[in-house]
Design brief:
Helix content: over 70%
Shape: flat
Largest sheet: none
Number of helices: 12
Structural class: mainly alpha
Strand content: under 5%
Length: 307
């Protein structure tokens, strides 16, 4: 009579201390990380805000009740206070502010995503190459990094946008150019601690080339720390983009960018406070969400943090 082994549930399979495959081990690690993260209430609040931002950006056309670019009747719909018809009021061109804030989430998410996609690989590449090779390579790359770090991010971004010209595309490039140095410094510090580790020496003795060692073994070990730093920097990226928009160097009218909306409403801040306040609340909420999410990820992913 044959006996069959009891079938494992999905939770037991993920929690197994003796995984049968690399995929099971990887999925189990992701599961344990998620369980730890769910125990951080503020981190979950931040994740909820970020997920809400993504959903609002994706379904902006469905959520927004009005066209964000077209205004209404200037005689009857201009500078109306918040009401059931216009949840956040209207601006000086009779445009619905709620619809513009909702569509502005798309621009904000696009800026954050593109800056992260551009700046993170640059910082990882510069930092890991500098830390792994050392010597004159380290000196040259870190001195270039120091030049970028010597200037405040917003000031340096202003200089690049002034050279490239105003516009949301140029603003993204300028912010990305000024965002990579901290990631390079962090990746270099992580690389210096692991480049002489025993497993790296073993891989080197097996004949692996430096690019393969850096890409296949050093970068993955630096990735968690860099991801934490990138997530924490998202709020700074949003504020920098809003600052450029406020100064007229970012998204150009009539695009519904939150910083530009604040700039347009500053003339009415005393009598019609909602014009500038509503996009300001959106910037504050999203920045807070990314900060809380970054703190939660740091508690879970940082190997040096106390569990």
């Amino acid at each position: 009579m044959s006996t069959q082994a009891p079938r494992q549930s999905l939770g037991e399979w993920l929690r197994s201390e003796q995984p049968a495959s690399r995929s099971q081990a990887r999925l189990g690690q992701i599961w344990r990380t998620w369980v730890l993260f769910t125990g951080n209430r503020l981190g979950m609040v931040g994740l909820g805000i970020v997920v809400l931002l993504v959903l609002v950006a994706v379904f902006a056309d469905v959520i927004a009740p009005y066209d964000p670019l077209l205004g209404g009747d200037l005689r009857t719909a201009r500078l109306l206070p918040p009401s059931l018809e216009h949840l956040m009021g209207t601006d000086d061109l009779a445009r619905d502010i709620f619809s513009r804030v909702v569509h502005g989430a798309r621009l904000t998410l696009m800026v954050v995503a593109l800056v992260a996609i551009i700046a993170t690989p640059i910082g990882l590449l510069v930092g890991t190459v500098s830390g792994y090779f050392g010597g004159w390579v380290d000196t040259v790359l870190m001195r270039i990094t120091d030049i970028f770090l010597a200037f405040p991010r917003l000031i340096l971004a202003l200089a690049f946008v002034a050279a490239l010209g105003p516009g949301i595309e140029n603003a993204i490039i300028a912010i990305a150019i000024t965002s990579w140095p901290p990631y390079a410094r962090l990746a270099r510090a992580e690389t210096l601690t692991i480049r002489n580790a025993e497993h790296i020496d073993a891989i080197r003795l097996q004949g692996a080339s430096p690019p393969r060692i850096i890409w296949g073994h050093v970068v993955p070990l630096c990735l968690s720390s860099v991801i934490i730093r990138v997530t924490l920097d998202m709020a700074g990226i949003i504020l920098t983009a809003a600052g450029l928009g406020f100064l007229g160097l970012g998204a150009q009218p009539p695009q519904p960018e939150w910083g530009a909306m604040i700039a347009g409403g500053r003339r009415f801040i005393i009598d019609y406070w909602w014009v500038a306040t509503m996009p300001g609340i959106a910037i504050f909420t999203v920045s807070l969400g990314f900060n809380l999410l970054g703190d939660g990820l740091r508690d879970v992913l940082d190997p040096k943090a106390e569990k």
